[in-house]
């Protein structure tokens, strides 16, 4: 059969040579800033291994939080993973020294550059902020480190000052610049314009770090890519400060299927990664969460069941197996005749149209909502089709 997404894909207007978009996962840094989350040293190491095996490009962790975090960072760096381990701290010599103690080769430093951060958080002038930015990059480079600089709250900073800082740190050799929408105030076209302002004048590779306060994080991350960013920050299930940042599962699936980026992700690990974080944080992703949620591949309405039993692609953009999830069908008052017939065949009951209709009516008459749900395996799909 032809690709059911064929016409939709014509609207997506893929380029012939899609660029590769990298992923930095910050579950161990941003994720630990989610209320109630605190990983043990062992858990951090396991999460890093899983993320590396999954195929992210960089893994971010902050050694400056505590001695325990410093120990975790050091141990994770020693594992020799494929992903870069990015050691995160403030744009201060003392924080960079902690990263150096961990034998980091990649660091990230941040400095709030909006007027509200300068005046009410840091209590420094723009001149001091500019000097601190340049000094920290020069200090890192003088120790042979690769450095990413985050212009924190950049989307709310004076664009002239933002550009001035980016140019100054580029001049002293910064390796990447992260453009954050720290309070999630931009809409997608706003994120596009924000990134474009910098990418028009700066050659340094750019990251997007976008918060989800108004639910725009995922859309803004991809608007940033359209404007020149080549790395997106994620966490597993999107956990982070307040409402968090884009979820790794959604970003990785969108990159693979919608952006045709040439990543080497093991997408079938996505649900396991989500379960691991759920176990370590006790935060259960909501049922309808894309990709990993328990309802993401459940089919319920009678008309949907009738179609899905013949061809699941009728109501699924991507097969559940590809992302480590499972397809389930829900039987109850909405099942309809085809759903009832399928249920009867599973129970080994003889079925004809009339009986299936009366079972469907019986299910409706019970007024008990959903009664049972069962996995719908490919094997069973074939069975029902052959029974037709
Ligand atoms: Zn953040």
What is the CA-atom radius of gyration, in angstroms?
25 Å
- Tally of separate helices: 15
Give the name of the CATH superfamily of the largest domain. Aldolase class I
Distance between the termini: 19 Å
The low-pLDDT segments are 384-388
Q: What's the helix-strand series?
A: HEHEHEHEHHEHEHEHEHHEHEHHEH
Ligands, ions, cofactors: zinc ion
* Helicity range: 40-55%
CATH topology of the largest domain: TIM Barrel
Lateral strand order in the biggest sheet: 1-2-3-4-5-6-7-8
- Return the domain count: 2
Q: Overall pLDDT, averaged?
A: 94
Question: What can be said about the biggest beta sheet?
Answer: 8 strands, parallel, barrel
Q: Mind telling me which CATH architecture of the largest domain this is?
A: Alpha-Beta Barrel
The first-level CATH class name of the largest domain: Alpha Beta
- How many individual β-strands? 11
Shape field: elongated
């Amino acid at each position: 059969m032809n690709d059911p997404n064929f016409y939709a894909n014509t609207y997506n207007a893929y380029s012939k040579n899609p660029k590769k978009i990298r992923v930095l996962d910050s579950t161990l840094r941003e994720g630990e800033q989610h209320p109630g989350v605190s990983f043990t040293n062992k858990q951090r190491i396991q999460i890093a291994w899983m993320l590396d095996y999954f195929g992210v490009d960089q893994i971010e962790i902050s050694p400056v939080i505590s001695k325990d975090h410093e120990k975790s960072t050091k141990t994770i760096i020693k594992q020799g993973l494929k992903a870069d381990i990015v050691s995160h701290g403030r744009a201060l010599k003392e924080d960079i020294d902690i990263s150096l103690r961990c034998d980091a080769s990649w660091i990230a430093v941040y400095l709030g550059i909006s007027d509200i951060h300068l005046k009410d958080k840091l209590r420094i002038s723009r001149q001091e902020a500019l000097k601190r930015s340049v000094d920290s990059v020069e200090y890192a480079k003088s120790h042979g480190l690769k450095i990413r600089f985050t212009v924190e709250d950049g989307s709310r900073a004076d664009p002239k000052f933002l550009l001035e800082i980016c140019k100054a740190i580029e001049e002293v050799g910064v390796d990447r610049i992260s453009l954050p929408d720290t309070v999630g105030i931009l809409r997608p076209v706003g994120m596009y314009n924000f990134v474009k302002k910098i990418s028009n004048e700066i050659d340094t590779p750019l990251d997007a770090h976008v918060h989800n306060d108004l639910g725009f994080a995922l859309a803004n991350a991809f608007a940033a890519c359209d404007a020149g960013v080549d790395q997106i920050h994620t966490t597993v299930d999107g956990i982070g400060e307040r409402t968090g940042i884009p979820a790794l599962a959604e970003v990785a699936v969108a990159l693979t299927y919608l952006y045709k980026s040439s990543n080497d992700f093991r997408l079938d690990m996505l649900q396991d990664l989500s379960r691991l974080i759920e176990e370590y944080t006790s935060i259960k992703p909501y049922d309808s969460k894309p990709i990993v949620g328990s309802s993401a591949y459940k089919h319920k309405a009678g008309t949907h069941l009738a179609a899905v039993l013949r061809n699941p692609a009728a109501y699924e953009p991507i097969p559940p197996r590809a992302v480590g999830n499972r397809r389930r069908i829900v039987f109850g008052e909405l099942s309809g005749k085809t759903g009832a017939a399928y249920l009867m065949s599973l129970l080994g009951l003889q079925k004809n149209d009339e009986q299936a209709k009366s079972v469907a009516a019986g299910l409706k008459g019970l007024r008990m909502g959903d009664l049972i749900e069962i996995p719908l395996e490919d094997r069973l799909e074939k069975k029902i089709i052959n029974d037709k």
